[in-house]
Each structure stands twice: as C-alpha cells, then as structure tokens.
Amino acid sequence: MPSVALVRHMLREVLVGREDPEGFFAMCLSILGHQETLSQFPSIIKPLSSANIHLHSVLTSIYQEYSSKTEDDGMELALALSLLEMKDQQMSTSNNDDGPSCFDQLDVVSKPQGKNYSQVTPGGGTNTYLGQTGTEEGPPHINQKTGQHKNTHLNSDAKKTPETSQNPQTPGSSASLSQPGIPHKEDQIMEDVNQSDKPKRSRNRRQRRKGTSQQLVGLPCSPSAPPPVVLWFRRDLRLCDNPALIRSLERGAPIIPVFIWSPQEEEGPGVTVAMGGASKYWLHQALSCLCASLEKIGSHLIFLRASGVGNEGGSSLHALKQLVKTSGAQTVMANALYEPWLKERDDVVVAALQKGGVECRMLHSYCLRDPYSVSTEGVGLRGIGSVSHFMNCCRQNPGSPMGVPLDPPVSLPAPTHWPQGVHLNVLGLARMPRRKDGTTIDWAANIRKSWDFSESGAHTCLDAFLNDGVYRYEKESGRADASNTSCLSPYLHFGQLSPRWLLWDAKGAGCRSVKFQRKLAWRDLAYWELTLFPDLPWESLRPPYKALRWSTDHSHLEAWQQGKTGYPLVDAAMRQLWQTGWMNNYMRHVVASFLIAFLHQPWQKGYRWFQDTLVDADVAIDAMMWQNGGMCGLDHWNFVMHPVDAAMTCDPYGSYVRKWCPELSDLPDELIHKPWKCPASMLRRAGIVFGQTFPERIITDLEEQRTRSLQDVALVRREFGQYVDKRSGCDLLPLPARLVSEALGWSHSDEAVVRDGKQLLLPLITRMEFKYQHEEPDTDVASNPYNAVLKGYVSRRRDEMVAFLNERDFTTSVMYESAQRQERLERDHRKIERLPPSPSPCGRAKRTPTAKDRFSIVPGEAVTLLK
C-alpha cells in the first residue's frame, strides 16, 4: 500500500543518518495509525536485522516499549484525541472568538508538508521531537518524508496571557528528561499551519533552512503545572538558535528568564578589564532589546544585581539561590562561558545548586567548538598559535556535530507569579559621568547613532553583508574607506547572533570566502589560547619579552588614545574608535603597530584601552591579538604596519581620513596621509596650522624608533638565553600542563605530576628580523634584511595582471602563467642545490632575500628540557 511504501522510503533516511529512530517511529504512527503500526512495524524493519543490527535493536526496543502500554493508557489516549476533535470543531464553526482557548497555545509545532508527526502517548501527553540543536544535550530532529524541510509559523494574532490560556496538566505527564536526547511526556499537540501564514524570509535564510526546521511555541501553564525553569541569560542575548531556551521549552514548565549582573565576576581578575565602558553600554542596550523581544512573546526578563557574598561561588550563586527559593524552580538552564574565571564560577554554581537538589545545566553554543574539548593529539605542537594548526587539531579530534540552527519561539510559558527584580538602570551599565555643574556627559551619543543593538539588527547586518560585502571581503577586507567587512563582531560577542547561525547563513548564501569563514576559527582559537594560558590578558607568554624596557612617555600614550599623533591614518582610526566603538581589523593592526613598534609603549596599555572603548571588546580575542602584535604571543606575526605607507592598502584616496579628520579634507590624495610634506602655500589654502588645527607629529624619525625597538628585543633575548633555542634561534615557551600531558599521551589526571616536574620548553615561530638582530645586535633597521615593516600596496598586481590578460587573450594568459611557473621552479632548484639566487629582473624590487639560510629554519616539534 502507498503508506507502507512511504514508511519504507523514510526508513532509508534513517539508514543514511538524516532521521533518528524515535522520529521515524513517530512518523510511522502518524502515517499508519496505531493498529497498523502494531501489526506491520516488525516486518518493515526486518531487513535491518542483517543490514544494521544496532539500528534494528534500537527500533525494536522502541516498538516493544510502545506496544507494552496498558489499556488504561489507551483510554487516556482516546480522551486526548476526543478533546482535539472538539477543539477542531470549535475552530471551524467560530472564526471570531473573544480569546484563544487552551489549545491555541502550543509547545512545539512542526509542519512537514501536511503530516502530523507528534506521537500521542498513553497518559494524555505527546512525545514531540525537536530539531537537533548541535549540543551534547540536544534532542534529535525530525525530517520530512522528502528530506526537504520548511519553516512553520503560527498565526499568533490573538493576545496570549496566562489568565486566558492556562492548560491543566494531565496526570502522568512528565516534566523532565530521563537522559539527553530522549523525548519527554508533556501536554503537546501538533497543528498544521497554512503555507501562506509564514512570514517572508530572505533568500539566504531559506537556503539555510534546507535542513531541519521547527517552530517552538510555549504554553503558559496552570497553577498545577510543574516547577518553573530558570533561564539564565548571560552572553546569549537572543531568541534564535538558543540551546538553553530550547531545552527550557522541552520541560513543558513555566520559564523565568533572568539576567544577573555581578561586576566583580564579569570584569575578571586583576587588570583584565573584561567589561569596559563601551561594552557595558552595548550590553545595556542589548538587554533592553531582549526584554522587548520577550514581552512580544508573552514573557519578561527579570534583572537582578548580585549583592550576596560567600565562599561558594560568589554573588551570582547567592542571587540564583534566592531566585530558586522564591520561585520554587527546580531547574536552571544557561549557555556556557569559557573565560577561565567564569567557568570556575559556573562549576561552583552547578555543584552548589545540584547539592541543593536543583538541576543546573550549561549548554555549548558560544563558540563553534568547545575550547576545553580541543586536543593536539595526532597533530603535535608544531605551529601552535596559528589558525592552521588549530583547525588541524579540530579536524583530527572532532567534537559533537554542529547541528542545524532553529528558529525562535513565538511564545513562552509564563509563571503564575513573577519574581521581583530591579529596573535595568539599577544595574548601572549605561551610567554617564556628570560635570561639576550637574550636566551629563553623553559620550555614547555617536555610538547610539552608529548601531542597531537588537537581535533583528544583527540579522539585518548579516543579510546586508551576505548580499554585498562578502564578494569583496577576500581581497578588500582591509579597506577602511569602504564597507567590505561584516561589522558582526559585537553581535557575536554578546550572543545576539550565534556563530552556528552565521556559518549556516554564509554557506546558504553561497559564501565562498575562505578568509571570512576562517575568522570564526580565529575566534575559537583565541578562546582555546585563553583556556591554556589564563593570564593571557596581562602577562607576556614568551618569558624574555616580560623584561622589555618600554617607554615611560605618558604623553605619547595620551596622544595615541585621543587621535592626536600627527599621523592622519592613525588619528582617523583612533577617532573612529572613540566615536563609534569600532574599527575594522586592518586598522586595529595599524594603530597597534604604531603604539608598540614606533612609540614603544607596552602592549598591555593598548589592550586595556581597546577593552574600554570597543563595543565588541572580547578578552580572549583582544589579548591574543595584542600579544601577537606585541611580539610575545604564541604566533609572531612577521609584519609591522607603517603608519603612512599602510594607507596605500586601506585608504588609497584619502576618503577615510577626510571623514574622521575633516580638517585635512582639502589636501590632495597624494599628500593627505603626510601633510608635513605639503608646501606652505597649500597648507595655508587648506587652513592647516600644525599644533593648532592639526597636531604636530609626536615622533618624526620612524626608522630610529624601529631600530631602538629591535635593539631592545635583541638585548632581552641575550639576557634570557635559556629561552632561546641555540640551533634555530627560535623563542622557547614553557608549556602548560595540559599541553604536556597531551604531547606525552598522558591523561588529564596526570597534570599534577607534570606541574610538579621540570618545565618543558617548546620552540615557537619567531620573526626572522629578531633572529638576525640577535646575531647582529648593533645593526639598524635599514640594514636588517628581514625588516618586517610593510610598505602597503594599492592592489595585488599579479591578480590584476592575470585578470587583464585573461580578458584580452587566452593564449597570452597561458604564456604568462607558464612563465611564472618556470620562475618558481628555477628558484626552488637553486634553493635545493644551494646556489645563489638568480639576479632580480630589472624593475622588480624585492623586499627581503629569498635564499635558504639559517634564519628561515622552521622550529621543530621537539621540546627542550630546562635544566
């Protein structure tokens, strides 16, 4: 019969892994009915007894469990179906109800092409299978019979309130899961929704939903409902693709969303500055938007300012205990955070709550990969700190599957009585300073004009980038004068956009930019480094560089912070940072290189300023980037941005400088980045007076400053010779216990033995100019053949040349590519035979030599024992 053939077709979906066994059994019930399933299901799955014994045993156990239900359960099933029929009759006869009935509030809705895939269980409840969340706690997902999935949305025009939409619980329904991934019994029904009821979605979103898709709807419960669930919002301020929210909905209980602000915990230990002024202001606005979004779906966000103190996890634990006590909640759901001090806090909170009989779960969603699950086993330690090494570790040691993002719920079950909270302003996140006369200094006015702080603003920004900017990102992401970057970093940091949602939308839009997708890997790498080195935000990783003699000229630091260095490109970037709380990644490299390599200021001061002024201030990312730029991180970047010549790449026509330094707008393009070279008459016509309308340069001899920096590095590397490899000249890093145990194949329980033993040192990638300066300490920067300063370029000439020739003549382009290939072969041959390099053709200048020498040795994987 056709229905049996359809079921057999879906069985193939189970075999290839696109459907789970529980969902398949629910489909059989929906298509065949109760009696037909009991009689034909064993014969349907019989072919699996030889093809897949494990799957056959799983389906058999599900069938036996279902078929062993008592007659009393069957009576309750019939009662539930009769109530459903009564509800359908009421809806068909009355289209103008005064208010929604209890059946208008649904827990879970999935519309696979007109089929009802909910399984009504004996006891009056229904087992409904949610989509895969991609977490270890995530439930299995439901596919349609064709494997193609569609979004479904309820028509929620009627106002839903707890007073008008209470639904009494059926005795025998369960509000808790016995184990992750197993559906629970609760009062849920499935309802078909007309295709015309779906709101319009962008093309990218539709492509992303080609996988499984479901709509979650919460059911406000009656006074006899199970205990409420506390949904603890932290840096996951969204409704879309929120695993903690989804797991809370699965409980079939009222949900109490709460945000707890604890400054002592959130701002981190010591001088971490995890939450600066700009990021606190963004958090304030994002919380306000999240509260409005929750109110639209019948819920409310409770704000608490933690004030309790104690030795059991601090003030957040105290606030949660008080909330659990007043609300009667038995479950706390939250998404995990990975900063070491916050994870330690969360571990204490989970242990304390579970000790008191309250279930507490932390779900993974903040990164694509849980940084505590990344291992170097099978990859080794060579190249550690680079994104390529990190991605190899993830491929070699894969974690749980990422899964498919889910759409937001259209309603949440509300408690009968809401706990008492405080107003958002009481948290003090957006407090503005006051002048002596009592007026307020609104330093965030331009930030408000520059950003949409809502979750919908995040999706709008993402769609705009995928429709336009992504096609220029690969080659022109460094341009400061054009919108070629996504500007999604603050939304990712505060969890208004999940990285999984971003990745799925990017792939769904046909995004082929490897560079853009690698940015998410860089983000995960930063958190992995922070878990390995908890002191990353304030202490240099490479021991010799802790002794660098930095400049003590505080006026230089202030000029850099205020955008008054006299270098237009640097000043424009720092003014953009102050006014909007953001700048693109290339400009962050420019200003960081200027502060460290030319002003010789310690990287920690730049890190703290960024943490205070960036709206996307992220401890892990900023600390990793500033350490690498400050010459002391895991990865030595072999480049330094020139404050003038870098403009050839990021602002070749001066548009960026004219926007943020309008006093220079009348200068020509070729001189706007170096106004000190302008003739006096040109300066007079432009109205520029150095020291008045535009600042004087705080340093004039850039080469001298770079020479001083290199000589200081060479000095400390000689003083701490035990941390420099004698063979390769590379810096040596003391390995943390976790990496040592992985390298030696030990279990994590052996880390204590590693800590008590001798230090193990690992050679790290080191700049070649540092190696040369170590051997020739008196050499100036101009004589160093490995000078890392980049001069910038307007565009990649080879790419333009090939594109031009391909456009003009195919034969010419093939000849050009052949000539390039021949040059590479000749160069490689000379290196292998240790011959001197061939002379460079006339007109083709080379910045650094390419011959093989002792300074280009890649550090090996061997570790050195410090005596």
From TrEMBL:
Residues 200-211 have a biased composition (Basic residues). The record marks 550, 603, 626 as: Electron transfer via tryptophanyl radical. The keyword Flavoprotein applies. Keywords: Chromophore, FAD, Flavoprotein. Belongs to the DNA photolyase class-1 family. This is Photolyase/cryptochrome alpha/beta domain-containing protein. GO terms for biological process: circadian regulation of gene expression; entrainment of circadian clock by photoperiod; nucleobase-containing compound metabolic process; response to stress. Binds 1 FAD per subunit. Its cofactor is FAD. PANTHER family: CRYPTOCHROME, SI:CH1073-390K14.1. GO terms for cellular component: cytoplasm; nucleus. SUPFAM superfamilies: Cryptochrome/photolyase FAD-binding domain, Cryptochrome/photolyase, N-terminal domain. Residues 820-834 have a biased composition (Basic and acidic residues). Residues 113-221, 819-852 are annotated as: Disordered. It holds the Pfam family DNA_photolyase. Residues 113-135, 163-179 have a biased composition (Polar residues). FAD binds at residues 473, 485-489, 516, 616-618. Residues 227-368 form the Photolyase/cryptochrome alpha/beta domain. One of its GO terms (molecular function) is FAD binding. InterPro entries: Crypto/Photolyase_FAD-like_sf, Crypto/Photolyase_N_sf, Cryptochr/Photolyase_FAD-bd, Cryptochrome/DNA_photolyase_1, DNA_photolyase_1_CS_C, DNA_photolyase_N, Rossmann-like_a/b/a_fold.
